[in-house]
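In response to reviewer comment 3 from the previous cycle, which asked for concrete evidence that the modeling workflow produces usable outputs, we include below a single protein chain processed end to end. The sequence was submitted unchanged, and the resulting structure tokens are shown without manual editing.
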Amino acid sequence: MLLNFYQSIRQSQIPVSIKEYLVLLEALQQRLAFADMDDFYLLARTCLIKDEKYYDRYDRAFAAYLHQLSDIEQLIDALIPEEWLRKEFARHLSDEEKARIESLGGLEQLLDTFKKRLAEQQKRHAGGSRWVGTGGTSPFGHGGFHPEGIRVGGESEQQQGVKVWEQRAFRNLDDSVELGTRNIKLALRRLRQFARTGAAEELALDDTIDATARNAGLLDIKMVPERHNAVKVLMFFDVGGSMDPHVKVCEELFSAVKSEFKHLEYYYFHNFLYDYVWRDNHRRKTNKTPTMELLHTYSRDYKVIFVGDATMSPYEVSAPGGSAEYYNQEAGAVWMQRIIDNYDRFIWLNPVRTDYWQYTPSIKLIQQLMGPERMFPMTLAGLEKGMTALTH
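The workflow returned the following structure tokens.
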């Protein structure tokens, strides 16, 4: 049965190897998960899943596997061996839980009754006090009330179930969903690089041991400078107009970037890069920073990230005077080319769904200018690919 569970995980496009499956079997043999569905769920996830972004897929695969089992006998045989359940399950329950289960006639009768109801029931049922369904006061199903129930599907409302199935706690960690601040930080760490700079502050253990041995056993302490985040990031955020619906995700990205990178510089632009940018949107008309000044200020080792929907008139990219706000003497493409020539690593993060990109001429123009492998969607997977592009 567990082999079928392993196959269900694989079919959900979660990278899991035979070695990890064997680790799970060994853990079960050691009874690290014992007569408890929740314990098995957590143990299997710990052994099989190595990246948080797959947690939601795992939850769905776990639930799908349970639904594949035709009855409660198969479920018990697959995940809770008969001898474990019958002999030792009770000792894992509190006195209060034992009393609640005994009110229905004991665990045996609770499970036996559940089997019979599943065998007799032929269709979906809502309300009532007998069948497995939603609402009502039956001890089986969800959305109703019974003090000793087994919840099947749905979400807990009364918090009274003896067992809870299908609680998906990591729905926002799938790599196809939009980003949240925590998710962004996980992806940004692919870009982080560390270097040792400054005064000697940390103990170099290996060097200390080696020096002490060479010094006939007399302690010879060696210190090294503390490790610091050495990545330098220069970011440009598109603001206003068509970017208004994307303010939330851009704020989350900005918050995560500020916390992850010590050397961060950021500026704003509208639609596309021209001869000036700004740091404060409230003073954008008076406190402008010439783009050429940036090229002379920030060295070539900065990683450049543009954030915007790249949705505008094509003339805003390709023609002088194309700016929606003023007459620009040089086309935006000219300024973007200067960025490309001045920095080795640059990407564009786009909050618009990728299936819309082909219908937007300006996106195609920017992809042609920067290279199609330099524009990425603002999903967890897209951000991870973008961070990889900035390191190669």
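The first strand starts at residue 133 and ends at 134. We consider this sufficient to address the reviewer's concern, and the full set will be provided in the supplementary archive.
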